[in-house]
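Local shape tokens

___
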Amino acid sequence: MSVEHISKQLSTQNLSAEPTDKIGQPHSIIYNALASLDKLVPGINDEIKTNIDTLLNEIKSNGVVEIANQPNEVARPTFVLSQATFEHGFIDRIANDPKSVICIIHTDTPTTPLCMINIESTERDLNPLIAPCARGDTGTKLSIGARAPIVHKLCKTCTKDYPYYVCYKQTREIAAESKKYDSDSGKIDAIGEAKEQDKVFNRHYENGEYNIQRHLHNKITPELSGASYLYQEGGTWRYFGISAPQAKDAQDHKDWKVWDVAVDSVQGKELVKKYQHVWPTHVLPRIKS
């Protein structure tokens, strides 16, 4: 899909029914994100960069972007790298005030960046983390490779009291065992790779340099797959979030959503109500106090 197509989709969606003052005025983290793309993603091509720039500006203007029926090769780098730019902005905020940001990942299995053996993984290393249909997609690999070091630094910057929350429904091994395969050998290989990814996640979880807190939630459905970030801006709590499948479940014709709204806005209240069921129970009191 071309840049013009995704830009047209963004401009023609019914992005938000809320007035701007309910969403919140444009804020510094958006501008920092826009300015950091080249630094965060070395070698990013102009098409992906333009898509991200378009998406971030739409978020800034409207607070919510929802695009339906998107091909993975276009949507994943656009949405996931936009997520990564926000995560990068949160690192400095947490370093200055650990209580100002709450990071919560809620996915089917442990989050992809923390299942990587090496954050500077080669293309061959990344393949087991990606659905077979998307392993030839350079945009998917770019998004995983660029986001991984940001997430790892974020985990080290978070504190024990305000950790990086990793909420998931099941281990990668269990998820792999439940899938259908073309051959027994393919199943054995996939389960073996998933088992190794679980071990890698556990090593990061047990690493004293990382402040990770994990939670198993059987309520995490594909609809709830994504991430929630609660952060303070000018004394007000905001919600930045993304709705997206993990790379292991990548496929075309999926709906992608991203939000950045005030928690006390109409949209913010709806999002908190929707996602609080897969957050750790002590998160909600922190943003209401």
User: Anything to note?
Assistant: The chain has one domain: 3-288. The longest helix spans residues 72-96. The beta strands are 64-70, 101-107, 164-168, 212-216, 226-233, 236-243, 254-262. The first strand starts at residue 64 and ends at 70.
